[in-house]
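Entry 14. Ran structure prediction on the chain below.
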Amino acid sequence: MAKSGKSKARVANKSPQPAAPVADVMRPAQKVAWWALNLLIFVTPVIIANWTTIGFQLPLTYDQFDIVKVLSQRVFTLIAFGAWAWDILSHGGKLRRSKIDYLVLALLGWVVLTTFTSIHWQTALFGKYRRFEGLLAFVNYAFAFFMVTQFADRASRIRTLARTLFFSGAIVSLYGVMQYIGIDPIRWGTLPFEANRAFSTYGNPDMLGGFLIFPLVMSLALALSETGLVMRVTYWIGFLLAVFAWIVAFTRGAWIGGAVALTIFIVIAVRNRVKLTGTDIGFLGAIGVMAGGLVVASLNATSSVMNVWLRLQSIFDTNDGSSKTRFQIWQAAIDAIKDRPIFGFGADTFRLVFPKYKLAEYVGDAGYLSVADNVHNYPLQITAALGIPGFLLLYGTFGAAAWFSAPLVFKRHEGTERLVLAGFWAACAGYLTSLTFGISVTGSTFLLWVSMAIVLAPLARVIEVRRFKGGMLLSIVVLVLVGVLLAGSFVYTVADNHYLKARLVTQGQVRIDEVKQAIALNPYNDMYRAELGLAYVDSTVNIVTQLASGGGQDPALRAQAQANFDAAETALRASIDFVPWEYDNYVFITSLYSLGAEYLDPAYGELAVEYGLKGVKVERYGPAIRFQLARALMRLGRLDEAREHLQIAVDLDQNYGDAWVLLGDVTRMAGDLPAARDAYTKALVLQPTLTNVQSSLAAVEASIAAGN
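Output, structure tokens:
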């Protein structure tokens, strides 16, 4: 709060009261801030990095969804704050304080503390790649909350923000509908979920479903509170699109959360005696028919995910499918919380924590390649990240916002003027409900904080801030700081463009150079560091393949292979030093040492065993590290140990074909031909076209028949 000489800022209104209608006149800097807030709400849900539909050959970033949404949030929030700060420091004005400001500050303080006590402060600060919900995300949420509080001081502005959200949601919903009916102008490649399941601009149906709760409720609130026929029809069309996309995302948590939000809103509408027009009734009927048609059509789907009835049934079936694995992830989170109940492991670090606490049953149910980077339960996610105090602070903030705003929202009165406010309140409740079964991503959760600010805005306390002499200088300092932060946000995104090129476009030294550039721009991303090691590994493989084809006698090739091997070893060891909890790096380096032992120096075999055992300590139920460790032990002739680790691997995941093949090789070398036969047979059931395994099985069966 700015001060001028001996004068102090004076409180203009100490008691919380709804703001009186005033002329909506803003100075230029205020207009910039206001438009930035609207762009924050409109652009963030819509923006993606894949623009191939308009001629781009590649996406702009490797992460095509979350990283650009984070960029959008940071850019528009910073612009809004910078413009507002310039205005109030240069001219003075009104500072609006919400009823939960101290709780928000306390929460931020706790997230800062847990970042310092985290198992990996870099992840806790920036968030895990493709999640990005670290400390910086919470800071962004708080600033968005603060800025909306400053400007949502009258019903007209609240309605404008609601309209902005509506049009953004309509675009997202329409794209989801297009995907469901098979029209998608963007090239996405192989999708990790069912064909024609809507994911829109969020890249994942679960994440899309969570977002849709906001436009689902707000389009209905705007429709029922609109007096003009054209806009009323427009809002109803938006509601129809939102309902359509909400259903065809086939996301159970979003269905539950959306149902909760709509129920709350309908209760408020009934209490306010909202009268439906013929237009309203017509659209409600059409939407009901459409929703019923989608449900009936889904009943013919063979996929349990795309069948609404089977999808609903699966909510109550905890012994099969994704419900079962979700409970297993929850149990891992609970066990993690028991180990660090106060400070947690740090914001957004669950991927690093999960390997230590996951259940053996999870591997068999989800597959050996599956790693949960999110709890799929926001209360447990937050508690594992920030400890029990962090959970209490965050959900205490949510609860306080609901408590203070509820009397205003639920107050019985004639008319529709508060329906928009009620829509934001219901959307918050629905979204939080969905998070009990889903994933929080910054591209949606920022709307939760925006909505909280809006429902609390009529109760804000107003403080008059007078202009003071040093205001202009301080405002320049603020703008410089904002400029630096804006530049940093773009650098973060440019780094991912280099990572994209390394992963998808370039090879050899060019690929290595691209990864190095990504690391130089963003040294805090552990995936970039691991990619550098893998780039050198691939170069090493290419060279040793040439070396082996020439009999292994070419000194120049051998020297080149050794140089690349050394670089790969250095990069992967550095990656392990940077983030010791990341399981994959132990798999990578153990495989590298086995490669070195085969082609360069047998002594690398001992290092392969050493790092394989380290990897087992990080993730005892990790079939991939057991497989790599067994390869190393097998080369050293330690067949019994290799067999033990391979047996654990196949017991954990019966569908791990490569492990069955290697188990067959090990038991064959050990002279246990019946066991080798069984292992090869199982491998061929999983991968029938493996001719080398067919030959091995035939040889083993011949030996058994001959009595050897």
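The radius of gyration is 29 Å. Will compare against last week's run tomorrow.
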